[in-house]
Write a structure and sequence with these properties.
The complex is a heterodimer of chains A (432) and B (243).
Chain A: H1 3-17, H2 20-52, E1 56-62, H3 67-78, E2 81-86, H4 90-95, E3 102-106, H5 110-115, E4 123-126, H6 133-161, H7 167-171, E5 180-182, E6 185-187, H8 191-229, H9 233-236, H10 243-283, H11 298-325, H12 329-352, H13 360-368, H14 372-383, H15 387-412, H16 415-418, H17 425-431
Parallel strand pairs in A: 1-2, 1-3
Antiparallel strand pairs in A: 3-4, 5-6
Chain B: E1 5-14, E2 17-27, E3 32-36, H1 43-50, E4 58-63, E5 66-67, H2 72-78, E6 79-82, H3 94-105, H4 109-123, H5 138-151, E7 156-160, H6 168-185, E8 188-193, H7 196-202, E9 205-210, E10 213-218, H8 220-226, H9 232-240
Parallel strand pairs in B: 3-8, 3-9, 6-7, 7-8
Antiparallel strand pairs in B: 1-2, 1-4, 4-5, 9-10
Helix pairs in contact in B: 3-4, 3-5, 4-5, 5-6
The chains are: A alpha/beta (432), B alpha/beta (243).
Chain lengths: 432, 243
Amino acid sequence: MHRGVKLLIIKEIKDLLRDPKIIIGMILFPALIFPLLGAAMSVTTSSTIEKAYGNLTVFMIDNDGGNQVEALKRYFNSSNVDLRVLAGDPSNVSKTLDGGDVLVYVPAGFSQNITSDLKGNIVLFINFKDFSMVEFIKSGRVDALLIAFGQNLTNSKISSGMPGTDPGSILSPLAIDYESVIKGSPQPISPAFLQNTVRTQGIMGPIVITIVLILAMQIAATSMAVEKEAKTLEILLTIPVSRLSILFSKLGGSVTIALLATIANILSMTYYINVLTASITDATGGMDLAAVGLAPSIEGYAILGLTLFGSLISALAIAITLGTLAQDVRGAESLIGVIMVPIFLPTIILMLGDINALPPAVQVMLYLIPFTYPVLASQALFTGNYGMILIGLAYMAAFTFMTLYVAAKVFSTEKIMTAKLTLNLRKRKKGK
Amino acid sequence: MAPIVVIRNLIKEYSGRRAVDNITLDIQEGEIFGLIGPNGAGKTTTLRMLSTIIKPTSGYASICGKDVVNEGDMVRRLISYLPDEAGAYPNLSGNEYLKLMASFYFESNDDVKRVVEEGVRISGLGERLKEKSSTYSKGMKRRLQLARALMISPKLAILDEPTSGLDVTHAYHLRNVINGYAKSHQTTILLSSHNMLEVEHLCDRVSFINEGKVVECGSPADLKVKYSSQNLEEAFVKVAGFA
C-alpha cells in the first residue's frame, strides 16, 4: 500500500476511534443493545412461562350439582389443577380473584343438557388486572382443558352410539402429513413452521445490512465534512499526497470503522437471533435447520459478502462525494438523509414480500437499486436462489466503478474546497 | 540567482468575477515576502494557487522551477502552507499530529523524530503537546500549526495571516519564530497580512494587493520613502487611494 494512504488510513482510524460519538454510538451501543434485548427477552419469557405454566388454580361455582359437573371436577383434578369450589354470585366472586385467575361458573341444567345431547353452558370469568402474558396464558390453559373435556364427552358419545369405531377418525377423517420439498429434497416440515423460520431470517438479514450501510455512509460523509469544519482540509490538500490517496484513505478508514461496527452489530444480533431461534426450536420440537437443508452454504456467504462489499464501496463513494460537496457536518448529514431512501426501500419492501410477487415496474426499480442485492443475497442464504443476484453482481461492479469515478473526479477539482451544497431550500428560495 | 517563486500574469476567476487579476511577481530565496491588502483583495486566493489547492484560470506560477499546475506533487514536497483558519485533528494530541505530518515528508524514524523535536521546540508548547488538540486555545493551535509548517524545513513556507486574531503574547511569539526561523534556516517565507505594522517588522519586501491586482512592490523602507509615509499603512492608503 502507498505510504501516504497507509498513514492517512491510520490517522482516520485513530481519529474516528477516539471520537466518543463513534465508539459509543456505532460500536458499543449496537454491541450491547441486542444482547441486552435478548437477555431481557430470555429472562422475561422464562419467568413468564414459569409463572404461567406453574400450578394452576381454578375456581368453580357449581349451581348444577349433576353428574357431568362432577365428571368435570374429576377431570380438573386429574389434570393437576388445584380446583376450589366456591359459592355465591359469580360476578361478585370473580372480582375478588387475583389477575389471571379463572372462575368456572356452571349454571343449573348443565348436566341435564349434556345428557340430552344439547350444549352444556359454562361461563368463564377471567380476572384481567394488567393484561399480562401470564393472565392470557392461564385463561388459555383453562380454555384448553375445557375443550379437551368436551372432546372426551364427544368421544364417549360416539363410542357408545357406534361401538367399535375410532371417535378420532369420525371427527377428523383426514390425516395430513406435510412434506415440504426444500431444494429438491422432501422434508417433514409443515409450511407454517417453514414460513416462520424463513420470515425470521428474511427480516434479520436486511436489517443488519441496512444498519451497516447507514453507519458506513454516515462515517464517510461526515469524515470529509469534519475536515472542512475542523479546518484541516486545506492542510490535507497541501501535504505531498495525491488527492486520490486522500479519497482511498477516507474509503479505507470508513470501511474499517464500518467493519468494526458491523462485527459489533452481527455478534450482537447473532446472540439475539440465537435466543429467538432457541425459543422457536423449543416450540417446534427442536428441528435441526441444517438437517433439512435450510442452513446457509459457504457459497451463499461468499455471494452475500461480495454484494455487501460492492454496496459498501459504492455507498461510501456516494457518501464521500456528498460529504465533499457539503458545507459542513450538518449539511453532509442532511444530504446523506436523501440517500437513505434507496437503502431503506429494498429492505422494507423485501422484508414484507417476495420480489417475484411484486409488480414488474417495482421489480425493475428494485433491481436498479444496487443496495437491493445484499438484501436478496441474505434471503437467498436459505432459499439458494441466486439467479438474479449473480447478474446483479456485474451490475453492482459497474455501479461501484462509476461512483468511485465520480468521487475521484470531485476530489480532483477545486469543488473539494469551494462546494457548499445544501438542502436548505428555504434559504435558496430567499436568495432568488 | 533565479527567484524561488515566479508568478506571471496569474488570473483566477469565480463565475466571471476576477479574484486575482493578472498578478506578476518574483520572490527570491531566503526572503520574507509579504502580500498586503484589505479583506477580499485576493491574497488568500493567490496563496491557495501557489499551494496547489486551486488552479489558476490562466497564467503561470512556479516554485523552485516546478509548475504549480502540472507538477503539483513535486511542489507539495517543497512547500508548507498555513491557512488563515487552520485546525488540527481534535482527537489527536499535539505530538501525534506533528509526528503524523512529519511522516508525510520523511520515511526514516530517525528523521521523523528529529523533525518532531524541531516542531516541539518551535511550538514552545512543552507538556501540553501530550494533550488532545481539542483542548488547545486558539493561540496554542496557531503555534502548533506554525510548528507543523516550519519543522519540515520547507523551501517555501506560505503563511496566510499567521497572527490574525491572536493575543499579543501569541502574536509576539509567532513573529519571533517566523523571523528567527527564516534567518537560521534560509527558508523563504511568503506571508499575507492586513496588519501593516507586523509586515513592516517582518518582511524584506512587500507587495500591495488591491482588488486582485498588485499595485506596488518593494521593501518597506523604500515604499515609505517613495510615498512619504510614516509607515506602510499610510503608504498603502496612498497607493490604493482609500484616503
